[in-house]
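2024-03-11 09:14:02 INFO receiving multi-entity request
2024-03-11 09:14:02 INFO entity count = two
2024-03-11 09:14:03 INFO echoing inputs for audit
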Amino acid sequence: EVQLVQSGAEVKQPGDSVNISCKSSGYSFTDSWIGWVRQKPGKGLEWMGIIYPGDSETRYSPSFQGHVAISADKSISTAFLQWTSLKASDTAMYYCARMPGVGNSGGLIDYWGLGTLVTVSS
Amino acid sequence: SYELTQPLSVSVALGQTARLTCGESNIGSKNVHWYQQKPGQAPVLVIYRDSNRPSGIPERFSGSNSGNTATLTISRAQAGDEADYYCQVWDSGTVLFGGGTKLTLL
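2024-03-11 09:21:47 INFO inference complete, emitting structure
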């Protein structure tokens, strides 16, 4: 059974750094993409970026490029989403998601984590 | 830029058919995927590549895609279908979501 287990909620202050994680199991971690999706309270889904753990190829949405970093550690089948300087506007639920492939023939999300709530407040 | 347009809300009577649309120029040339998100829960894939149902999704859920509109159809709507629904495509090397439609059961 495919599972994506995300780390727990974080409460941070503006300017803080944070690293949230997504541990995969039930499939070959290096054979699928892992993406991150932001959802602000009461709002829709926003695509942040994806990583292919097999070779660490990473692609970012222009809206998030330079503000977050996506990485993966094959040895522990875990993907990460990192901020070095949080803003209040980063307050949101963050989902990790598995994509079996990319491109028009792929590009679908077949499994989702339960989400990690990040709250940024002074 | 490519944008997927979904109505903010759709209402349907219990047992009737709901049709949720996702519009963009020539969307029929792309594979469209649909997700259901209930309050406080993660999204769930309900239709992939226009019209395919993942395992475990009821046959009441179906999809089509042609021209400038993709449609998610929910037949014999049930109270448990009340949720937000998002369409999604792959465009220009990235994932693109529609703004979502809130389905309300009357």
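2024-03-11 09:21:48 INFO post-check: Chain B touches chain A through 25 residues (CB under 8 Å).
2024-03-11 09:21:48 INFO post-check: The beta strands of chain B are 9-12, 18-23, 33-37, 44-47, 61-66, 69-74, 83-91, 94-97, 101-105.
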